[in-house]
Amino acid sequence: MAAPRILFIGVNYAPEPTGIGPYTTGMAEGLAARGWDVRVLTSFPHYPWWEVPPEHATLPARSRAADVEVHRLHHYIPREHKMATRAAHEISFGRRAVATRWGRPDAVVLVSPALLAARMCAAKARLSGIPVVTWVQDIYTLGVSEAGSGAGEKAIARCESGLANISERVVVIHDRFRRLFTERLGVRRPVDVVRNWSHVPDLRNRRDPAVRRRLGWADDDVVVLHAGAMGAKQGLESVVRASQLAAERGSNVRFVLLGDGNRRAELEAMGANPRLQFIDPLGDDDFHAALGAADMLLINERPGLTEMSVPSKMTTYFATGLPVLAAVDESSTTFDEMQAAGAGVCVPPAEPALLLEAAERLAADPARARALGANGPAYRERLLTPRSALDGFEVMLGQTLHQPVRVLEPTATTARWA
C-alpha cells in the first residue's frame, strides 16, 4: 500500500527562524520521517523581516529537504502593515498557490495564517474532490475584534467559519481555540487540539560569561530578553518605557529585544538609553546561546489581546530553565498557559513600572527564580513534545482519510508526485 500523500500549503516555512514556520516545517518533516509522502507549497523566507533577506533570495524554487519536497512561490510582501496590505499579501500568495499544479494529494493541510490564501486553496481542493484539513495557528476574528477593527470583523468571521465548515477537520493549538470555533464561530466540523511543541533542544544550564561579554552584558546586568517578532500585538512600546524608567532609577535591569518586525524602527526611534538593547535575528546556535545567557525571558502583549494566539516563543522559553516574565491580560490564553506551567510571573500589560519592578523582585530572589525556571522544562516534557504533536496529527489525518493510520518505516526517498 502506497504511503498517503499530504500537501501542506502555508506561507511560512524553514529557514524562517520564528513564528509559524518552525511548526509547519517540523510537522512536515516529522510525518515524512514516519513514512508519509509529504510535499509543501510555501513562499520564500520573509518573516519576521517582511522582506526576503539576500541570503535566502537565491534559494531554489524547488528543493528536497528531510524527505519533504518543497516548492516556493514568489508573491507580494508588504513593507507597510495595514489591513489592506496584509490582505493583498495573502491573496497574492493564494493566487499563486491556486495556479500551481498540486499533483494528486490524498489530503491538503492549509495553514492559517494565511487565512485568505487558505480560503482560496480550499475552494480549489473541494472542486477537485480533495479532503481539506485547516490547521489554525491564530484566530483572525479575535485579532480584528481585539484590535478594535469592528468594520471587518463580520467579514473575517464569515471567511474563517466558512473555511472551517468546508474542511473535513480543523486542527487548533489550544482548548480555548476549540471552544471559540465551536461556540462563537459556529463551526460544525470536527475540531481537534494538537498543541504546538518545543522545537529547540534542551537549553538548560547554558549561561556562558563569554556569550554575555560578546553581547555587551555586564556581570551585574539583569538581562530581560524578549525574542521574536516586534509587531503590533507584542506592544513593545511599554518595554521601551520600562527601560527608560530603569535608566532614570539607576536599575541594573537591561531590556533586550532580539529579532525584527514592522515596529522595530518605531521602537528604536522612541529613544536610546543604556538599559535598552536591540539585537538583530541570530542563527540557531547564537540564538540558543543568547537565550541561555539571559536572566529571564519576556512575553509582552498589547492590552486587550486575550485569545487571539498562543505565543510561539513560549515553547522555546520553556526549554531554557529560566523564569518567564509575562506582561499579559489575566483573561488571555497566554496567562492561562503561564498559570498551568508555573514557569514565571505575570504582570498587567502596558504598565512599564510594574514590569520593571517585577524583574527587580525576581532578580532579588534567585531561589524563586530557579524554582520557576525549573517548571518550564517539566511542563514542556508533559505536554509540548514533538512526539505527542505528531501522534495527534497522525490520528487526525487517519480520520480525515477514513482509514486507520499505518505508520511506515522511514525511507531515504519517496516517489515524486505527478
General description of the model:
There is one protein chain. By secondary structure, the protein is of the alpha/beta class. The protein has two domains: 5-197 and 385-400, Rossmann fold (3-Layer(aba) Sandwich); 209-381, 3-Layer(aba) Sandwich (Rossmann fold), CATH 3.40.50.2000. The protein has 16 helices and 14 strands. The protein has helices at 21-33, 54-57, 83-99, 115-127, 140-146, 150-165, 175-184, 209-214, 237-249, 264-269, 284-293, 313-317, 333-341, 352-363, 366-383, 386-400, and strands at residues 5-9, 37-43, 62-65, 68-73, 107-112, 132-136, 169-172, 191-193, 222-227, 253-258, 276-279, 296-300, 324-327, 344-347. The strands form two sheets. The protein has an eight-stranded mixed beta sheet with strand order 3-4-2-1-5-6-7-8, sandwiched between helices. The protein has a six-stranded parallel beta sheet with strand order 11-10-9-12-13-14, with helices on both faces. α3 (83-99) packs parallel to α4, α5 runs antiparallel to α6 (150-165) and α9 crosses α14. The longest helix has 18 residues, at 366-383. The chain is globular, with a radius of gyration of 21 Å.
Summarize the structure.
The protein has 16 helices and 14 strands.
User: Roughly what percent helix?
Assistant: 40-55%
Q: What number of domains?
A: 2
Q: CATH H-level name of the largest domain... which superfamily?
A: Glycogen Phosphorylase B
CATH-defined topology of the largest domain: Rossmann fold
Biggest sheet record: 8 strands, mixed
Side-by-side strand order of the widest sheet: 3-4-2-1-5-6-7-8
Structural class: alpha/beta
The shape is: globular
Taking all Cα atoms into account, the compactness measure Rg is 21 Å
Order of helices and strands: EHEHEEHEHEHHEHEHEHEHEHEHEHEHHH
Distance between the termini: 18 Å
Low-confidence stretches: 405-418
Number of strands: 14
Strand content: 15-25%
Mean pLDDT: 91
What CATH architecture label of the largest domain applies?
3-Layer(aba) Sandwich
CATH class of the largest domain: Alpha Beta
Count of alpha/pi helices: 16
